[in-house]
Design a protein that fits this description.
The complex is a heterodimer of chains A (154) and B (416). Chain A has 154 residues and is α+β, with helices and mostly antiparallel strands. Chain A contains 6 helices and 4 strands; from the N terminus they run H-H-E-E-E-H-H-H-H-E. Chain B is of the alpha/beta class and 416 residues long. Chain B has 2 domains: 142 residues, Aspartate Aminotransferase, domain 1, CATH 3.90.1150.10; 254 residues, Type I PLP-dependent aspartate aminotransferase-like (Major domain) (Aspartate Aminotransferase, domain 2). Chain B contains 14 helices and 17 strands. The chains are: A alpha+beta (154), B alpha/beta (416). Chains A and B meet through helix 1 of A and helix 12 and helix 14 of B.
Chain lengths: 154, 416
């Protein structure tokens, strides 16, 4: 096995990929969006329950896809709980940079630990066609916050 | 890749000599020898095709059907010579039945937009199959939306066969067209297009056969099939991209309105009105893909020099061996096991998404396709969103089938 494969398929990713957390519908959700990656046909729906103060109380998703997309969605739903919509957006931008660029990603101090957790997905940088697998859930989450019903990464 | 075929004498089909004709197959990917198993998407090119196109540009290139000068006449001879080559390849009656297009997709769209628009009326029916490529579904959906016709779909059986009994019940006096793949691009199933055509003709329907996955793997005879239209793409037949073929029965082509308007497709033009050239020019507006047509002719020469029957025999032994190796791997599910079958193996691996399989295989040098293969209805039929697909060409070996199987074992190691 090559080093970049080992980097991509770390144990954390394989674990989240096989046993995604929060993979269920969320009937109480007041934000939701459907994401689609036309290249591979993967689709997923992200559900958010956001309170009046704009804080994400609960996040969940349904969908099927590769280990990378499932792990990314799973970790995202864990991280989002308790975050404000603005923080969710900031994390999306930081995560996107993490998946595509080599430079150190800037993020507010209180989000540092979350971004460090997401570092395990940075292996996709060596696999350009897989970046969208990692970012689909996040794109869909932002679409849900912004009130869009569907998003396609095509 | 030192492989000695057990079932064919090396003098009949020397795969190592064949491989030497394909410069790209000698390269490495991620430091590993390339094992190219995606010829159903697009085949690699032999040096004979590459050199023919290069030499044509360097010594004989000019626009066709125009100049009164020697070079244009020479280029026209080569272009029309390519048309005659395709005619003989398909055993069409006359080269007037061969239209050059950009590819099979454009060929099907051409038929839908010209014959379709001029022929079908609301309530008419077009019969498709559940294993069609999107290119043989969407043009008919567009025609259906425009004309109010009804699409009927022949189901696919669990083992990947065309369901003949359903087909017979779907045919009726309302059927105008039956549009079917000759070979499934996902399952490799070979459809009984000759019988399908006879049954369609019995109810007065025309037949279009999508031959993209058939022409690289065996002899095709449009007169024996008796179909009305037959389409294929050059790039899957070891030829250039940007060139494809529409065979159409001459009487139909004469009756069909033109496709695109422009130069080369007219008899005369005035502002009061224009008249059309006869087929095939009527359907070839604008400057065509001249060098690509010449390259396609070289590709046909190439496969004929090896012999399509020898190619088919070779590929069959490799595919059978690969099928055995894959079937022996725990967790592998093969889709479409019905015989007869051409050079495609679609499979899934329990607990691993096809996209992850393809990424890991790629790092081992093994190029396969993962996804829906432009056949989403067929994916739904088998209850999967995607499959992994290994497709074989005239240059693949048993050693490459071993490399595929070994790489799948690496996938299983990673995913535990």
């Amino acid at each position: 096995m090559t080093d970049d494969l080992r980097e991509l398929y770390q144990d954390v990713i394989l674990d989240h990929g096989k046993r995604p957390r929060n993979r269920r519908p969320l009937p109480a959700a007041n934000r939701q969006a459907h994401g689609h990656n036309p290249m591979c046909g993967d689709t997923l729906t992200v559900f958010l329950k956001v309170d009046e103060a704009g804080i994400v109380r609960e996040a969940a998703f349904v969908g099927e896809g590769c280990a990378i997309s499932m792990a990314s969605a799973s970790m995202m739903t864990e991280i989002l709980a308790g975050k404000s919509e603005a923080e969710a957006r900031a994390l999306f931008h930081a995560f996107h940079t993490l998946c595509t660029e080599e430079e150190e990603t800037e993020v507010a101090e209180n989000l540092r630990d979350d971004l460090d957790r997401l570092q395990v997905l940075s292996g996709v940088r060596q696999f350009p066609v897989r970046v969208k697998c990692a970012t689909l859930a996040w794109h869909t989450m932002v679409a849900a916050i912004e009130g869009h019903e569907t998003i396609s990464t095509g | 890749m030192n492989v000695v075929l057990q079932t064919l004498p090396a003098s009949l089909y020397d795969v190592n000599r064949v491989r030497a004709d394909f410069p790209l197959l000698g390269r490495k990917v991620h430091g590993r020898p390339l094992v190219f198993l995606d010829s159903a998407a697009s085949a690699q090119k032999p040096v004979q095709v590459i050199e023919t196109v290069k030499t044509f540009y360097e010594t004989e290139y000019a626009n066709v059907h125009r100049g009164a000068y020697w070079l244009s006449e020479q280029a026209t001879r080569r272009y029309e010579g390519a048309r005659e080559k395709v005619r003989a390849f398909l055993n069409a009656r006359t080269a007037r039945e061969i239209i050059f297009t950009r590819g099979a997709t454009e060929s099907i769209n051409l038929v839908a937009a010209t014959w379709g628009r001029a022929t079908v009326q609301a309530g008419d029916e077009v019969v498709l199959t559940g294993l069609e490529h999107h290119s043989n579904i969407v043009p008919w959906q567009m025609l259906a939306a425009e004309k109010g016709i009804v699409l009927k779909v022949v189901p696919v059986t669990e083992d990947g066969r065309f369901d003949w009994e359903s087909y017979e019940t779907l045919l009726s006096s309302r059927t105008r067209l039956v549009a079917v793949a000759h070979v499934s691009n996902v399952l490799g199933t070979i459809l009984p297009v000759q019988d399908i055509t006879a049954a369609a003709h019995a109810v007065g329907a025309k037949v279009l056969v999508d031959g993209c996955q058939a022409v690289p793997h065996g002899v095709v005879d449009v007169r024996a099939i008796d179909c009305d239209f037959y389409v294929f793409s050059g790039h899957k037949l070891y030829g250039p991209t940007g060139i494809g073929v529409l065979y159409g029965r001459e009487a139909l082509l004469r009756a069909m309105p033109p496709y695109q308007g422009g130069g080369d497709m007219i008899a005369s033009v005035s502002f009061e009105g224009s008249t059309w050239a006869a087929p095939p020019q009527k359907f070839e507006a604008g400057t065509p893909a001249i060098a690509q047509a010449v390259g396609l002719a070289a590709a046909i020469d190439y496969v004929e020099s090896l012999g399509l029957e020898s190619i088919a025999a070779h590929e069959t032994t490799v595919v059978q061996y690969a099928t055995e190796r894959l079937a022996a791997i725990k967790g592998v599910r093969l889709l479409g096991t019905a015989k007869p079958k051409a050079s495609v193996i679609s499979f899934t691996l329990a607990g691993v998404h096809p996209h992850d399989i393809a990424t890991i295989l790629d790092r081992e040098g093994v190029a396969i396709r993962a996804g829906h293969h432009c056949a989403q209805p067929l994916m739904q039929r088998f209850g999967v969103s995607a499959t992994a697909r290994a497709s074989f060409g005239l240059y693949n070996t048993r050693a490459e089938a071993d490399a595929l199987a070994d790489a799948l074992e690496t996938v299983q190691r990673i995913f535990g």
